[in-house]
TrEMBL record:
Main subcellular location: membrane
UniProt entry tagged with the keyword Transferase: yes
The UniProt record lists the keyword Membrane: yes
Transmembrane segments: 60-78, 122-140, 152-171, 177-194
UniProt name for this protein: Prenyltransferase
Length: 307
């Protein structure tokens, strides 16, 4: 028997076991739940580092790591609580042990918020947590009910405002000037608004069934693409002017890479096709969630050669 035949048979056997053994399927789904937010948390921690660089403030590794833990906590909690659209959009999480995801979320939040409390910015730890709960579950006190989910582009606006404030707030907590913080907030707020909308394109089916008025669902593919492109150009134009005038740190590599990467993402991943190849999925993950990793890596390499 050739190696390819043996490997193919073994792979089919594993797929059969996963499909027909509920315990194995549950373990796989739970593991998927726990690891699904790792990349976005790591990317978020590096975004905080980039914000430190743009604000010309000494980067604190503890603040970056703590921020990443809070990001992991919020996203894992959201996926553990689940929502109607996740039945279609996140089939891989079906059957997962939600209580394990909830426990992991609480543990990482406690650790992250403790570190941020030592840094004097504990309030920022609760901003994304409270906002996330208001969005996904809402609150109801008597006749008063508040839930942020459902409006046109509301999710994307919340993502942009919340994480933009979180990132710029952590990095700018010791910054003496307000204008650079506002510029960094705008930069990351717009970027995360665009990134969340890009991911909405692959979730159109589930969002439509759940009645969510995301931008791709409401405006259509081309109109949403044009809107994102306009936002992207405007935010980088503002950042470029600020860089030239010395309002933020002179970091042309960060601005240029972000500009090019954003153009590629808006052009290639604002499509509502149901089928997405493994390669395109990996490419989208690297360019969208992995952008900050690439920026920090390139900056490190360039700095090494220039020294």
């Amino acid at each position: 028997m050739s190696f390819n035949v043996f490997f193919g048979s073994f792979e089919r056997f594993l797929r059969y076991r996963r499909k027909n053994d509920p315990e194995i399927g549950e373990k796989n789904a739970t593991l998927e739940l726990l690891k699904s937010s790792i990349l976005v948390a790591f990317s978020g921690a590096l975004r905080i580092h980039i914000a430190f660089l743009l604000l010309q403030v000494h980067s604190s590794i503890f603040t970056c790591v703590a921020g990443g833990l809070v990001i992991y906590s919020v996203y894992t909690l959201d996926r553990a609580l689940g929502s109607e659209e996740d039945i279609v959009n996140r089939k891989e999480l079906s059957g997962s042990r939600k209580e394990i995801g909830f426990a992991a979320s609480m543990i990482t939040f406690v650790i992250g918020s403790y570190v941020l409390a030592k840094e004097g910015v504990i309030a920022l730890a609760f901003l994304p947590l409270v906002t996330g709960l208001l969005y996904s579950k809402g609150i109801k006190i008597g006749k008063f009910a508040l839930k942020l989910k459902g409006g046109l582009g509301v999710k994307n606006i919340i993502v942009g405002l919340t994480w933009g404030a979180f990132i710029s707030g952590l990095a700018g907590s010791t910054c003496r000037s307000v204008l650079p913080i506002v510029l960094v907030f705008t930069f990351f707020g717009v970027k995360l608004f665009i990134n969340s909308t890009i991911y909405d394109f692959k979730d159109v089916k589930g969002d439509t069934l759940a009645g969510l008025k995301t931008l791709p669902v409401s405006l259509g593919e081309q109109n949403t693409r044009n809107f994102l492109l306009g936002l992207h150009l405007l935010s980088h134009l503002i950042l470029g002017i600020a860089l030239i005038n010395g309002i933020i740190a002179f970091e042309p590599l960060i601005v240029l890479y972000s500009f090019i990467c954003g153009l590629i993402c808006i052009k290639n991943y604002t499509k509502t096709d149901d089928m997405e190849t493994t390669f395109h999925k990996l490419e989208r993950t690297i360019l969208v969630d992995g952008e900050s990793t690439s920026i920090v890596g390139l900056k490190t390499i360039v700095s090494t050669f220039l020294v």
